[in-house]
Amino acid sequence: MIEPNGNAFKAVAAGGLLAGALDLTQALILFGVRVPLSIAAGLLGRAAFQGGAGTYALGVFLHFFIACSAAAVYYAASRTLTFLKDYPLVCGLFYGAAVEEVMNLVVLPLSALHARGPYSLQDLILGLLVHMVVSGSRSRSAFGDGEECPQQHFQVIDTVKNYHIFPATPGVERLPDE
Q: What is the pTM of this model?
């Protein structure tokens, strides 16, 4: 599945790092600077909230590990399911919704925190929209093998914060605002 020229690694790394950075940034803005401690608490339990810089760094590392893992799954699936490459924006939005649901319904309940809700409707909708948009932008990185992708397929409009997210893709210019 990994191609000899390293494009798979580059695509997964770019997608995972981009999605991780966007997701962590929005989480820090919305929920505060203790978010990485909450992530680390998924592995260490409630004691992580009393942790210091090492626990904080662990939370950041785990966050990017999860984001890169999600990007790797999308990339691997896109090699077989070609419609994921043909329609990256739409598929990325649905994939983002799936990632959010797997986190809420599988990962968090199985974590050391045993988080099962109830979740507020606002948090559920916001989380769903943010992960859909973040994964929509990440899906463009699955084109690490030089395939053509129409520009309109990866211009993602972030409806949550009302600004544009554009993946850092060489040779692609920002589309004008409407």
A: 0.71
